[in-house]
Amino acid sequence: MINVFHIVSNKTWGGAERYASDLVAHMRHDPNFYVEVVSAKNDDIIEQFQKMDIPVSILPLKGIRDIDSPVRLARMLKKGKNIVHVHSYRDAVTAVMARIISDNPNTKVVFTPHGLKKPNLNYVSKKIYRSIDQFVFVSQFAYDYFASHAPRIKKQLTLVIPESVLNTDTSAQAQVPNLRQEFAMRDDQALIMFHSRLCKDKGVDVLLQALTHIDRDTYRLVLLGDGQPKAVSRIKSFIIENKLVANVKLLGFQRNVHEYLKQCDFGVQPSTIAEVQGISNLEYMKHGKPIITTNNGAQPEYVVNKENGILVRPNNPELLAEAIDLLCRDRELRIKLGAQAKHDFDTKLNYDTFYSKITSLYNSFFL
């Protein structure tokens, strides 16, 4: 059996936590692995993993000046075959130091960078990077960005394994409202959905601006997610000032998001920043929903314009409005794009494929 420790140290739930959560949720049923989460003391994040009956060890996880965390982690790595899978450079430092202290040659460190952040290039950082056994990138775009800024890392130590999504939401489906009924929608009106952090980076401001260019009788929009109070206040003010109150509904953060996604006609995720994968886009594709998204990151690796979704330039409300208006008015096109999106997800981007590649990597260390 291989022991797998996922280290998550962020203060808020994000892409790295979702990646680790889906993986440990799937892996805990695999008899070939023992899985455990190592987390900083954060009640909200710890609760998410404990709900799945995943063991959680709590460490300070404060980075290079934190001696306590690698010493305590080393005790967990003294025996057996171990994988420490980290999702940030700070946690990579902890993992590498813990492996040295443990003096166990059967401990390997895997690093999956999330987001676009230039790697540190000082002497210590280079030593840490060269001590990592495998880099796993969630998209070719993520690899290309990292490689263009990184210290010299051997090509054989890098893998691109496209990220996928696992539906781990088990909340009671009866508690999810029927959105079309709540909006009193006609059959010819499109139900649009956005789910992400409510912030400028995710393009929610651009989306709302785009709506001012569209016939309000053709659609209703649901915003799922939360954000900083100032950002949410700004969004509410825009909705009121532009008389969109009857068209836009804010539902806040929802744990059973998949049950909401199933109800929409299409999704809109107009990120203004480059996405290393764009996990929200994949969630729509999983449920056979077309997606309108931006072309400024990894999205073109799986969204083919006018075949399984629509790609637009970021920060362009007018172009976004044209794409939204097209899908609002053309139901047959929505169905066609959605069917192709589901086919592409099921055949190329499904979670079983992702899981098989990750576990094959884990196993390869101990052949």
Q: Which short descriptors sum up this protein?
A:
alpha/beta; 7-stranded parallel β-sheet; 6-stranded parallel β-sheet; 40% helix; 17% strand
Describe what this molecule looks like in 3D.
The chain is an alpha/beta fold and 367 residues long. It is 40% helix and 17% strand. It contains 14 helices and 13 strands. Strands 3-2-1-4-5-6-7 form a seven-stranded parallel beta sheet, sandwiched between helices. A six-stranded parallel beta sheet has the order 10-9-8-11-12-13, sandwiched between helices. Strand 2, helix 2 and strand 3 form a beta-alpha-beta unit. The longest helix is centred in the last third of the chain and has 19 residues. About 1% of the residues have low confidence.
Task: Give the SSE map.
Layout: E1 2-8, H1 15-27, E2 33-39, H2 43-50, E3 56-58, H3 68-76, E4 81-86, H4 89-102, E5 107-111, H5 123-130, E6 134-137, H6 140-149, E7 158-160, H7 179-183, E8 190-195, H8 204-211, E9 219-224, H9 229-241, E10 248-252, H10 257-261, E11 266-269, H11 279-286, E12 291-294, E13 309-312, H12 317-329, H13 331-349, H14 351-364
Parallel strand pairs: 1-2, 1-4, 2-3, 4-5, 5-6, 6-7, 8-9, 8-11, 9-10, 11-12, 12-13
Helix pairs in contact: 3-4, 8-12, 11-13
Quick recap:
The protein contains 14 helices and 13 strands. By secondary structure, the chain is of the alpha/beta class.
